[in-house]
Design a protein that fits this description.
The chain is α/β, with parallel strands linked by helices. It folds into two domains: about 110 residues, 3-Layer(aba) Sandwich (Rossmann fold); about 130 residues, Rossmann fold, CATH 3.40.50.720. About 40% of the residues lie in helices and about 15% in strands. Helix 9 links the parallel strand 10 and strand 11. The chain starts with a strand and ends with a helix. The mean pLDDT is about 95.
């Protein structure tokens, strides 16, 4: 009997994944609307595989993308069945423990190195699209600052440089600064930032910008927040100083949903083939 795959909530990535699964002849359904707890649990119980959002939840209570006060994470966890495979992104230790206690196998997309690298590249593509939407300046020699040089920082720096931007990377780690210089970027410490930049791409999920640090930048400078909470700066401080604050969460889902869905499908198929 064909395995029943249920996708719960999420964004455009879930809808794109549904189409890919159905094109392969899989029995799959996407549930995003509010429904009774009983109906929701019945759908979950009958599923062999569940695909939850990336990230799983933004408020710790509801599934991401399920609408205001809609699908409760607790309702999902308590309906899991032994033998199910549960995919999603950003599982906490408590989430994973609850899944395993139910006898389900938890697979976190954001723990898979290949998926994470692809996701970083998709985030960089989304960041470039936002830059193009919010500036009328030519990209050639446009001075931009990327804070952090992890996977997203590296992908963003490389893409911006490839389109002609003059990229400076700010990182605490000397090894990362050396790597940035070897890739053709300028590199500075977080404590020695230059105000001469048209756009800041923050990839550090920590408060690295004080109001004083932000005051170095010229009014109208773009501040793109690519990092997750607690973010690189306080939004009200960014706006109060006349900088153009651009929240940029979940860029892969907004701009590269089809690519993300293919990456998700690859992990689903790999996991099924290995029989984890």
């Amino acid at each position: 009997m064909e395995e029943n795959i249920v996708l719960l909530a999420g964004d455009a990535r879930a809808r794109a994944l549904l189409h890919l699964l159905q094109a392969k002849g899989k029995t799959a359904a996407h549930l995003s609307a509010c429904r009774s707890v009983e109906a929701l649990k019945a759908e979950i119980t009958n599923a062999g595989t569940l695909v939850l959002p990336v990230p799983l939840s933004r408020d710790g209570v509801h599934l991401s993308g399920s609408g205001e006060a809609c699908i409760l994470l607790s309702d999902v966890l308590c309906a899991l069945q032994k033998g199910q495979r549960v995919f999603g992104g950003g599982f906490s230790d408590a989430h994973r423990a609850a899944m395993e206690a139910a006898g389900a196998t938890a697979v976190d997309f954001l723990k898979d190195e290949s998926f994470v690298l692809k996701n970083a590249a998709f985030t960089a593509q989304g960041a470039l699209r936002l830059l193009l939407e919010h500036t009328s300046e030519p990209l050639q020699n446009l001075p931009v600052l990327v804070t952090g040089f992890g996977k997203v920082g590296k992908a963003t720096s490389a893409l911006l440089k490839s389109v002609g931007c003059r990229v400076t990377v700010a990182a605490r780690n000397e090894a990362q600064r050396t790597e940035a210089r070897l890739s053709g970027c300028e590199a500075v410490t977080l404590s020695s930032l230059s105000a001469q930049t048209a756009a800041v791409f923050n990839t550090v999920p920590a408060r690295i910008f004080s109001a004083q640090a932000l005051s170095q930048f010229a009014e109208g400078t773009l501040f793109l927040e690519l990092a997750s909470a607690p973010f690189g700066a306080e939004e009200k401080e960014v706006r109060a100083l006349g900088l153009h604050h651009i929240p940029a969460a979940a860029l892969p889902g907004k701009f590269v949903a089809a690519g993300c869905a293919k990456a998700m499908l690859a992990l689903l198929e790999t996991d099924a083939a290995t029989g984890r």
